[in-house]
Write a structure and sequence with these properties.
The structure is a single chain. The protein is an all-alpha fold and 51 residues long. It has one domain. Helices cover 75% and strands 0% of the residues. The radius of gyration is 11 Å and the shape is globular. The two termini are 18 Å apart.
Amino acid sequence: MNIAKLTLLLGNFFMTCNRFSPLEYYRFLLWIFLRFSYKQISYVFLFPTGY
């Protein structure tokens, strides 16, 4: 499973459970981004566009 799909799944899980505020969700995203290299981060951002 790639990072983009994992991020979307976790985001949907957090929002449906409604246990996390948007601020905590974005803080979690930031934590993910800091754990991975810039190349993988750019892939996550480019993934939805299909490039």
